TrEMBL record:
Residues 3-222 form the AB hydrolase-1 domain. GO terms for molecular function: hydrolase activity. Keywords: Hydrolase. The keyword Hydrolase applies. It comes from Agromyces bracchium. This is Alpha/beta fold hydrolase.
Length: 232
């Protein structure tokens, strides 16, 4: 199976390097992507928005044979969701890593501090302790050394969804910062931010307790969880 790994904010394809061995061992063809504007610290980020990230991954899907699995971490989950909306017949499964599908018209995050055309990785104090769980001082240092500013418009552009066939695509949510039981409670309570997830017809959950960046804090376990999701 072709598996496309989509990183979250501030990260490039290399962020998946410790996750991929479990997928390689399973015989999968792994395609970790670096999204437009994340090629390096000096890359151009002006004029790059969410649609550009979605288009880049959609082109990759179109260049592969057969159906593919999309794996999206954090904001990369929104990119995966939009690609599933654009190519629902090509997607065998979407795996959300500490992420969840959003509603049409929603933005990934409008509260991150913008500097010009980009969003640098903020100070750690901006993140809650739950997000930072497992991210010790050494991992924080390594993360910040590798972090690339995110194109600002990617965080604030509204998500556009047009094809309800996306709701039939099998979905796995790997929960890290919150347990899956909490998400189920939000769905049962009709919370608006999980309305898209509540509408999906084939969803399963995997609990991987750690912070928001399991590709750094529990990479081997994350790789196995993704491989198991694909096996379903």
């Amino acid at each position: 199976m072709d598996v496309i790994l989509i990183p979250g904010f501030w990260l490039d394809a290399s962020s998946w390097s410790e996750v991929t061995p479990a997928l390689d061992e399973g015989g999968h063809r792994v395609h970790a992507v670096t999204l437009p504007g994340l090629e390096g610290p000096d890359a151009t980020r002006a004029g790059i928005g969410l649609a550009d990230h979605v288009a880049a991954v959609t082109r990759l899907v179109d260049g592969l044979d057969g159906r593919v699995v999309l794996v999206g971490h954090s904001g990369g989950g929104t990119v995966a969701q939009a690609v599933a909306d654009a190519r629902p017949d090509r997607i065998a499964r979407v795996v959300y890593v500490d992420a969840a599908p959003m509603g049409d018209g929603d933005a990934i995050n409008t509260e991150l501090p913008v500097v010009g055309d980009e969003i640098p990785l903020p100070e750690w104090s901006l993140f809650g302790e739950g997000m930072l769980a497992g991210l010790d001082d050494d991992l924080r240092r390594r993360f910040r050394e590798r972090a690339i500013p995110e194109p600002a418009a990617v965080a604030t552009d509204p998500l556009r969804l047009t094809d309800e066939r996306r709701l039939d695509v099998p979905t796995t949510v790997i929960t890290c910062e919150y347990p899956s039981s909490q998400i189920q409670e939000w769905i049962a309570g009709g919370a608006p931010f999980v309305r898209e997830l509540a509408s999906m017809r084939q969803v399963d959950y995997v609990d991987l307790p750690t912070g928001h960046w399991p590709q750094f804090t529990r990479p081997a376990e994350l790789g196995r969880a993704i491989a198991q999701a694909i096996a379903r």
